[in-house]
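Below is how a single chain appears once it has passed through the pipeline. First comes the sequence as given, then the structure the pipeline wrote out for it. We keep one example in the README because the format questions we get most often are answered faster by looking than by reading.
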Amino acid sequence: MSRFYKTSRFFLIIFCLNSYVEANFFSKFFKQTLPGLLAPKIDLWNKWEKNNDQDQKVISHEKWGNILKKYMIENHPSGIGRFKYSSVSKEDKALLSSYIKKMSALKITQYNSKEQKPYWINLYNALTVMIILDHYPVKSIRDIKIKKNHASFGPWDAKLLKIEGAEVSLNDIEHRILRPITKDPLVHYALNCASLGCPILRDRPFTSKNIEKLLENSASTFINHKRGVENAKGELKVSSIYIWFKNDFGENDHDVIEHLKKYANDILKRELENNKNGISSHSYDWRINAP
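Resulting structure:
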């Protein structure tokens, strides 16, 4: 074999390897890095950091609880909770509206932090349900446009609440209040965006007494369902939540997988421990979470 042939083959192999590495880099960039860069970032709204931990008042979420008990199917055969939007009566829609108005009227910064966390979670979920009801039937929450002050907004950016004199949107609650103030990645398992890909809406409200246990249970329920984590033939597919908000769970794939292992059942945990390739892909089902 000539020296020229050997040299040519060497450079061909180097070229192919380089092309493979570059292809994988760009593939991962567009499939994982870019979606993460485009996702809403934490942007602390300092106003809502204020609390009064000496205060002992308890916020009642009974009205919201009545709605959830009546219309939320938590144990759906699919493993994904469903909300019976089409069955909600005018009276119960009015009840939901009155709950949202009551929550909005509270001076929440005067409550202790243990009451504030479930307050924001419940208000987010209740408002999301109200948005769907106002536009039902709809195939996806992403199809909704809300007109306000001669402008059109998506459901997350519309300032639909007024709390302590400030106009507040769903995105404000999630990315400017809950994520930066609680610094708790488990809030991602509590907030429901009315979609099949989302962690389920529970059939009871979050309260200062049940929130930690309910968050842990919600994390476990989501992670052990294939829309949360699916491992097939060594390929790890996860919910887009772990890509959009990766920094909430850690710095890289390894940190995300360590988080998943904490709540995985025995079979999934073994699969995650044997994973050598990190996260291969992600997906999210935006179809409405109706029966």
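The mean pLDDT is 91.

See the next section for the split statistics.
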